[in-house]
Amino acid sequence: xxxxxxxxxxIIIAIEVPPLWRKKLKKELWAFSLLLLFGTILxxxxxxxxxxxxxxxxxxxxxxxxxxxxxxxxx
Length: 75
Fold this sequence. Notes:
Blueprint: H1 2-22, H2 26-47, H3 55-74
Helix pairs in contact: 1-2
Transmembrane segments: 6-22, 29-48
Keywords: Membrane, Transmembrane, Transmembrane helix
């Protein structure tokens, strides 16, 4: 699974990077590289069955007290 994922990432790099490099689109190349790296790390972590926190849990933990306060206030 890991080698397949890394092979696909290598294919994506081989297809996407040369046109960006030729057109001298440095900012786009940096953005592409960072997003591909982030996605690859998350994909590898999921393939290795690491526990990846759900961002929705963070949103709930922030807005739950506000929701409870509004619920009490509106009753």
